[in-house]
Amino acid sequence: MSVLSKIKVVYDNYPLLRGMASYGIIWPISSLIQQTFETKDSDEGYDWWRCARFGLWGSCYVAPTLYTWLTIASIMWPGNTIRAGLIKTAVETVTYTPFAMCSFYFGMSMLEMKSFDEAVAEVNAKFWPTYKVGASIWPAVALVNFCFIPPKNRVPFISVCSLMWTCFLAYMKHLEKEDLPQRAKKSNVKMLSNI
């Protein structure tokens, strides 16, 4: 049996490892994409430690917690029907999603060696703006995931969908919390002027 065949067997039989590998690649790529937009008009290079933190967080925290949530949801509400998908989606939106977002801001702050109080302040400043955007996007993605994607491919499917979402999270993470109210006002004014 060749090395690639052995890797494929492991990949097929261990969906958690598949998710960890996916998130370990996609999260740092999202950080790189976000940094490309952030630094395109400056001479700053990439922050490779930031990418490493995103890779570590994505593979060692997000993938296992997401895998656990998807496993629990599949046990509690078995099946791929629209009804089961709607229930899983609704429960995910009010349980796992807030947990994941708070964990992201808090955990990433701790990986940046910020103090506990700074991490809590970041969660307080950034949770609601992020949750509002996430609650308008992720229910549709989750419904597709629960209704049409086989259980063994759910974590990789979500990880691919999360590439753009993680770019947004990287953007939000590196906004200064003091800038959030001004940016929100500017965004609202811009949206209203487009109507």
Structural write-up:
Helix content is 83%, strand content 0%. It contains eight helices and no strands.
Topology, element by element:
Elements: H1 3-13, H2 15-39, H3 48-76, H4 82-94, H5 96-111, H6 116-148, H7 154-173, H8 180-194
The percentage helix is over 70%
Q: Please state the overall shape, judged from the principal axes of the Cα atoms.
A: globular
Low-confidence stretches: 187-195
Number of DSSP helical runs = 8
| Mean pLDDT rating | 84
Rg of Cα set: 18 Å
The largest pleated sheet is described as: none
Topology order in helix (H) and strand (E) letters: HHHHHHHH
Structural class: mainly alpha
Percent of residues in beta strands? under 5%
The termini sit apart by 61 Å
Q: Briefly, what is this?
A:
It is built from 8 helices and no strands. It has 195 residues and is mainly alpha-helical.
List descriptors.
195 residues; mainly alpha; globular
